[in-house]
Amino acid sequence: MEESVWEEAALPSAPGEAEHPALALANSAVALPGGHTADLLGTPARAEQWLARRDLAPADAGLAEVCATQLRSLREQVRSLLASRVAGQPALPAAVTAINDAMTRVPTASLLLWDEKTGPYRATPHPTTAIVEHALAVIAADAADLLTAPDAARLTACASPPCNRFLLKHGRRQWCSTRCGDRARAARAYARRTALE
């Protein structure tokens, strides 16, 4: 199947994606059978839809290509960190720096603001021009939490090649979706049949 045919709805969420936007971001570029790929952030419009579905940006944010590129860049850094964690390898320093930079790019403290009519109030700034920076900070903070929380021990890569998605294991499940589990079981059955012939 061509990438344009695959929509996000056709790709079931991997276990843990609902709780961790960083895991969902890492899984937004999917390797499919037959050497095909699906990139849920491939265009600014698709990146905007992806962010809006996770309440990280308004649906009409009007993202430009530079914004989608920033999101795809963070995805590669998050993927690198998750892969390092799963493999038990040291993380690339550039990936750690990218996560820390994204987290510190936006203010996290509620600032004092003053409205002419209602007076003083506190709010965390989130201007329209900083939508992507805010989304990147939220995702980066979630990646840091995922990598350092007890859930990190459950982090694994899908065990069904060519799938490249990550998931949080529940029990013995090693696949990101039923589709991948079925494909892995079919491959094992085929291997057993051909070994007996």
UniProtKB/TrEMBL annotation:
Pfam families: ABATE, zf-CGNR. It comes from the Bacteria. InterPro entries: ABATE, ABATE_dom_sf, Znf_CGNR. Residues 154-193 form the Zinc finger CGNR domain. Transmembrane segments: none annotated. This is CGNR zinc finger domain-containing protein.
